[in-house]
Design brief:
six-stranded parallel sheet, binds zinc ion, two-stranded antiparallel ribbon, Dehydroquinate synthase-like, alpha domain, 384 residues, binds 5,6-dihydroxy-NADP, alpha/beta, Rossmann fold
Length: 384
């Protein structure tokens, strides 16, 4: 196991009815900007619960944060927050709302063009405090310091990470997820699954705790994920999915182990170019990446096949083939196609995708930094 330090400052408040806890969690004299998306929270009662909990507080609303949130929208919110002298941000929604709110928090006191925080890794000295109510279990952003933002004008999708933007608290009420459409249910399960794989499917460093946690989370998603589609109002299933997605990317399983993140790097470029949902891009890339990297990931692929899929093949090559096939089947079963053509994309524009990766200084990627332009091309071509 590699050396590490671990500190996750986000307080989690989990369970049915917990949105009412907002009243106590928010600072008494705060001037709050309540941020949300395109209106799902108005249809499922979450908005009303938040408004009730905000009674007596000074707050303003900023709505319309889109999926794959736009930098341009963030800038509008920053102007409003400055004008209203906001000192606390409350994000209510999925990963996009929370990610956008993190950039609002960081941009408010940033001297210069806030896009540099993402594009040039420019340091930030402070950020407004954030609290959140999560309605879509997927990204883990509710208790991590990451944010992914799209500049609409240039179709660039970039990420930044900073400990200053960890939410102070995250309310996770599984009943808020009952209204998710099947596509977003699939997205959430696939995204969380791939977050675990990015931190698990590399090479062994004898990190037994991290491996067993990761395998437990993968099994939870495999067992419970498909059930959400047929039993959408089952609280226990929703609760297990929600907690698994948070645990997948709150830093715990990634400490002291090598990490990959190549599937995400390729996926972000696919979203920027083709507009596919984040998790859809991961469902396309991961299986072919597993095949392409089967030599360097060999030991972990065998461990994954045996422990997660219960495979017993004595022929290890065959076992790896089946482990990859099972992964693909699982994504498909959730409702996420695993090829470009599955989304009606006839030409994946591989060379443009690779150029974008080069432009963003993303290559080489992977835990061994061995995914070069040539290897990435093979991975994307195999996913046609
Ligand atoms: O905008 P509204 O009307 O709220 O509707 C949303 C949106 O259309 C809807 N939705 C959310 N909760 C709902 C609901 N509909 C019905 N009932 C509910 N309870 O779902 C749609 C998608 O929402 P979005 O927030 O975009 O989805 P998700 O949570 O999957 O977030 C995706 C974004 O997070 C980034 C992705 O790249 C993408 O931009 N990621 C962030 C990460 C992080 N910060 O750590 C890591 C991830 O790997 C990922 O890159
Ligand atoms: Zn992701």
């Amino acid at each position: 196991m590699n050396n590490f330090s671990f500190h996750n400052p986000t307080k989690i408040i989990f369970g049915e009815g917990q949105i009412s806890a907002l009243a106590k969690l928010l600072p008494v004299d705060a001037r709050i900007l309540f941020t949300y998306g395109g209106g799902s929270i108005k249809k499922n009662g979450v908005y009303d619960q938040v408004i009730k909990a905000l009674a007596g507080k000074t707050f303003f609303e900023f709505s319309g944060i889109e999926p794959n949130p736009h930098y341009e929208t963030v800038l509008k919110a920053v102007e409003i927050a400055k004008g209203k002298k906001i000192d606390f941000l409350l994000a209510v929604g999925g990963g996009s709302v929370i990610d956008a709110t993190k950039l609002i928090a960081a941009a408010i006191n940033f001297a210069g063009e806030p896009w540099d925080i993402l594009a040039k890794n420019s340091p930030i000295k402070s950020a407004l405090p954030i609290g959140c109510v999560l309605t879509l279990p997927a990204t883990g952003t509710e208790s991590n310091g990451n944010s992914v933002i799209t500049k609409f004008s240039t179709h660039e999708k970039l990420a930044f990470g900073n400990s200053l933007v960890y939410p102070q608290f995250a309310i996770l009420d599984p009943t808020t997820t009952y209204t998710l459409p099947p596509r977003q249910i699939a997205n959430g399960v696939v995204d969380a699954f791939v977050h675990i794989m990015e931190q698990y499917l590399t090479y062994p460093v004898n990190a037994k705790v991290q491996d067993r946690f990761a395998e437990g989370l993968l099994l939870t998603l495999i067992e419970e994920g498909p059930k959400v589609l047929t039993q959408p109002n089952d609280y226990a299933i929703r609760a297990n999915i929600m907690w698994a997605a948070t645990m997948a990317l709150n830093g715990l399983i990634g400490v002291g182990v090598p990490q990959d993140w190549a599937t995400h790097a390729l996926g972000h470029e696919i979203t920027a170019l083709h507009g596919l949902d984040h998790a859809q891009t991961l469902a396309i890339v991961l299986p072919t990446l597993m095949s392409q990297q089967r030599t360097t990931k060999r030991e972990k692929l065998i461990q994954y096949g045996k422990r997660v899929w219960g495979l017993t093949n004595s022929d290890e090559e065959k076992l790896i083939d089946v482990a990859i096939a099972e992964t693909k089947n699982f994504f498909e079963k959730m409702g996420a196609p695993t090829t470009f053509s599955g989304y009606g994309i006839k030409d994946s524009l591989t060379s443009t995708l690779i150029e974008k990766l080069i432009q963003h200084n993303s290559l080489p990627i992977g835990e061994h930094r061995d995914i070069t332009a040539e290897v990435a091309t093979k991975i994307l071509t195999a996913a046609a």
